[in-house]
Amino acid sequence: MTEYPEELLTYAEQAGAAACFISPLDLVVEEKLAGFCHEPRCPNYGLSASCPPHVQGPAQFRKWCDESELGLALKIDVPVAILHSEERLEVMKLLHEIVAGSEQLAVELQYPRSKGFAGGSCKQLFCRDEKNCLYLSEHKTCRNPSYARPSMSGFGVNVASMMGLAGWDERASYKSESDGDPLSWVAGLVLLRR
Questions:
Q1: Beta 115-118 vs 70-79: how paired, if at all?
Q2: Which residue, 37, 52, 63, 188, is the most exposed by fewest CB within 10 angstroms?
Q3: What is the per-residue DSSP string for the chain?
Q4: Taking the complete model, does pTM exceed 0.85, yes or no?
Q5: Is the preceding omega at residue 112 within 30 degrees of 0, hence cis?
Q6: pLDDT tens, 139-179?
């Protein structure tokens, strides 16, 4: 019987994200979704070690899912207007930080091979003012290893499907219950592996 480390839910929620355990075997991983990073070419393609072509892709992600006991889905609800502004960068940084913190807590909770993934390119979020990714250009340690996490896109994760697994709204835009303004979400995932 799988144990559910409730501490992870508490941590994520206190940090500002909704969190839910899902089965990693139910995650939908599609080659074509990973392919969108290359064609049409994402502006972040090739700029960091956490984006294609520098990530292992869908086949490796499926192996990690097979080796994982649980998945921790994470989301932050965000007004659509913010996602269309420069403020989105701060939201995406927060997402990476929550995913990284959740991954570290999972390691402390005896899931030593846990791996976190977040939306967005770490180059754009953490090294925007740097010419190159230090890891790629000089084969040195990442400037932000405590926070930067690989993008789910490069692994072909169907994030909308993951949202549905967690019982959340899969649509990219929906109305807020409180004031009716359109909301969207940014999402992350931690695979819990022993």
A1: unpaired
A2: 63
A3: -----HHHHHHHHHHT-EEEEE-GGG--B-HHHHHTTTTTTPTTTTSSTTSTTSS-HHHHHHHHHHH-SEEEEEEEEEEHHHHTSTTHHHHHHHHHHHHHHHHHHHHHTT-TT-EEEESS-HHHHHSTTSSS-HHHHHS---S-TTT---BSGGGTB-HHHHHHHTTS--SS-EE-TTT--EEEEEEEEEEE--
A4: yes
A5: no
A6: 888 888 888 899 898 999 999 999 999 999 887 776 666 66
